[in-house]
Amino acid sequence: MKSSKDLLTDRFGRTVTSLRISLTNRCNLDCIYCHSEGDEGTRNEMTVEMIAQIVDTASKFGVNKVKFSGGEPLVRTDFEDILKALPELKDVSVTTNGVLLKGRAHDLKEAGLDRVNVSLDTLDPDKYAYITHGRPEDLYEVLEGIKAAIDAGLTPVKINMVLLKGINENEIDDMLDFVRGYSGDLVLQIIQVMDFRDGAQYDLDAKKIEEDLERRADDIRMRKMHHRKSYIINGAEVEFVRPIENAEFCANCNRLRITADGKLKPCLLVNDNLIDFTNAKQEELPELLRASIERRIPFYTDSEEKRIIEKKTIIGDRKDGS
Ligand SMILES: Nc1nc2c(ncn2[C@@H]2O[C@H](COP(=O)(O)OP(=O)(O)OP(=O)(O)O)[C@@H](O)[C@H]2O)c(=O)[nH]1
Ligand SMILES: C[S@@+](CC[C@H](N)C(=O)[O-])C[C@H]1O[C@@H](n2cnc3c(N)ncnc32)[C@H](O)[C@@H]1O
Ligand code: SF4
Ligand code: SF4
């Protein structure tokens, strides 16, 4: 009989303690680089009950964190019901574009949400509209949403800034000032753009930018998840997410993904090894979780042997179909 820890530990020694659940593929914006969590699936969406069942099962095997994402999770009007149906967990968070956050922040907190990440790549309304294919005014909705989240206690609020060559690479200091202005309630999270949609053309030398931040930092911390580092610069905290060609990042990946239509997805970048659990009985879920954990492979790795295995499993699934 396996212990609960073994059940969710993969053959590379990575124990899954966190679920990243996509609630929908729908979105009210259309960002130029969007990876949609590697999920281009159907418009079918898990019910509240399905989500509660899979989280409940995973929680019995050591999962204590859940991140909701999408698509845009707040387009689901039953998000509060989903939160209320969850078992007790250490950390329940959502990543949102923030456009619909203002009117929901208090209800989400009441329903059990602990904190929120808000995507905001620029403070310039015209650039915002260019990046999101939205309206310049949407930026003000997002800023109001951030304030509402702080008022509701959904803190720390992380501001997700995807670094985009030629668009926002010169805005890092403005963003640090913005975060500093909310003394501790906001954390900046800078993200290296991944090659989805038009992402490749905006790619820049993220490692060099991170090294610059490191030089300026008064203090440096490292997270268990992905061994991401965060830098304290003159009172502002900035975490750096650098997932590309980063073996250390993948070696410390402790998340299992769930697609909006109810499939266990071992890795963001691999699409041919998903396991559908929508027709499973509750008692079958542990075995499906185990099977999914067995399919987990670090996408980037220093080991040539693992790289060969992993490369064979990858299929292209980008928005342009290539
Ligand atoms: N390649 C890869 N990228 C990830 C993974 N987890 C998160 N990301 C990326 O990290 C960025 C930030 O994601 P968020 O949804 O804000 O969540 P997070 O920062 O990972 O989670 P918290 O810090 O716990 O709030 C996004 O661009 C995600 O696609 C992962 O396991 N693999
Ligand atoms: C896919 S979005 C879904 C949640 C929500 N709609 C939002 O935008 O916050 C989750 C996070 O992934 C980031 N993201 C999307 N495409 C990306 C890419 N190609 N490279 C890096 N991060 C990306 C977004 O900026 C956002 O912070
Ligand atoms: S708001 Fe989020 S899901 Fe929507 S297009 Fe932008 S990154 Fe993608
Ligand atoms: S293995 Fe690497 S690329 Fe895949 S989900 Fe984990 S951190 Fe992301």
List strands and helices in order, with pairings.
Layout: H1 4-7, E1 18-22, H2 48-59, E2 65-69, H3 79-84, E3 91-96, H4 105-111, E4 115-119, H5 125-132, H6 138-152, E5 157-163, H7 172-180, E6 186-192, H8 206-216, E7 219-222, E8 229-233, E9 236-241, H9 247-251, E10 255-258, E11 263-265, E12 275-276, H10 285-294, H11 304-313
Parallel strand pairs: 1-2, 1-10, 2-3, 3-4, 4-5, 5-6, 6-9
Antiparallel strand pairs: 7-8, 8-9, 10-11, 11-12
This protein binds guanosine-5'-triphosphate, S-adenosylmethionine (SAM) and iron/sulfur cluster (2 copies).
Describe the protein.
Helices cover 30% and strands 18% of the residues. A twelve-stranded mixed beta sheet has the order 7-8-9-6-5-4-3-2-1-10-11-12. A hairpin with a 4-residue loop joins strand 10 and strand 11 (263-265). The protein has a single domain (4-319), classed as Aldolase class I (TIM Barrel), CATH 3.20.20.70. The chain is built from eleven helices and twelve strands. The longest helix has 15 residues, at 138-152. The chain is α/β, with parallel strands linked by helices. The chain has helices spanning 4-7, 48-59, 79-84, 105-111, 125-132, 138-152, 172-180, 206-216, 247-251, 285-294, 304-313; strands at residues 18-22, 65-69, 91-96, 115-119, 157-163, 186-192, 219-222, 229-233, 236-241, 255-258, 263-265, 275-276. The protein starts with a helix and ends in a 9-residue tail after the last helix. Residues 243, 249-250, 253, 267-269, 298-299 line the site of one iron/sulfur cluster (SF4).
